[in-house]
Amino acid sequence: MKNQSSSSPDAQPPVISAIRYLLRPLIRLLLSHGISFQVFSELVKAAYVKVAETEFRLASKAQTDSRISLLTGIHRREISRLRTEPATGINLSQHSSMSALLLTIWSGDPEYLDKHGSPVPLPRLANKEGGPSFEAMVQSVSKDFRSRVVLDEWLRQGIVTLDGEDRVHLASDAFVQPQDTEEKIFYLGQNIHDHLAATVHNLAGYKPPFLERCVYYDKLSADSAKELEEYSRLAGMRALHSVNKRAVELQKHDHGQLDAVYRTNFGVYNFSEAEVTDETSAN
Fold first, then answer.
1. What is the predicted pLDDT for the residue at 217?
2. Of 231, 221, 219, which is closest to residue 270 (Cα–Cα)?
3. In 3D, which of 82, 85, 101 has the Cα closest to residue 93?
4. pTM, whole model, 2 decimals?
5. Is residue 120 within 8 Å of residue 114, measured between CB atoms?
6. Closest residue by Cα to residue 270 from 230, 240, 220
7. For 191-217, how does the pLDDT look when each residue is reduced to its tens digit (9 = 90+)?
8. Which of 191, 154, 188, 147 is nearest to 30 (CA)?
9. Is the pLDDT reported for residue 9 higher than 90?
């Protein structure tokens, strides 16, 4: 006889409750982009098979369809189909990738920073004496795009402004605030993946643990929540600029080394909302 209590919400393990909660904004994203449950179900099924195939192998044994079926609960016919389908990833276009690299250089390379560590305004065109310029920076990254094309797009997106002396100014939060929809979608996948991967790594007890911390407070007024949002933005930007500067230095130092195959991701976030209680939902 089936144990009825095992199917009740109160009897579910804490990880199920956590997954239910974290799925809500994901489902909101899917619905807002017209992605049906059937499409999402197929994505989840393929991810189950991929993770089981690559990360849950037995030592010195091939990962069979039968074992993946045992691990995932997916029928072997479906597993055979999904294992032969080509994997697809979310990639930035060449233009967006170059934009991300340019913003990293301008915000972290000492050549483009003032004595306070802030990005300096750049002359739009290179001059005979050399020195930093917007045109030279673009050419140092790629000669496939003219600097004017990049500048016009960045002006449209509000990433930069152009002053009366024909100097290009970088917006204060441009290098961590993508404006292009393609970039936002790319970083959605990358950043949420990395944050969740760090949490899962720590939850599994692997050593050393990744940095994954936050500060949480409730019982705040709307004004206090707004003040904390602005304070968090300033504090987070200081941390991001500092880490970005050091990362650029280390990347230059590691260039050409055989073990330079690692990537690292550091980010900050802030979120606030009015909590819905039994009393407020009844009003």
1. 93
2. 231
3. 101
4. 0.74
5. yes
6. 230
7. 999 999 999 999 999 999 999 999 999
8. 188
9. no
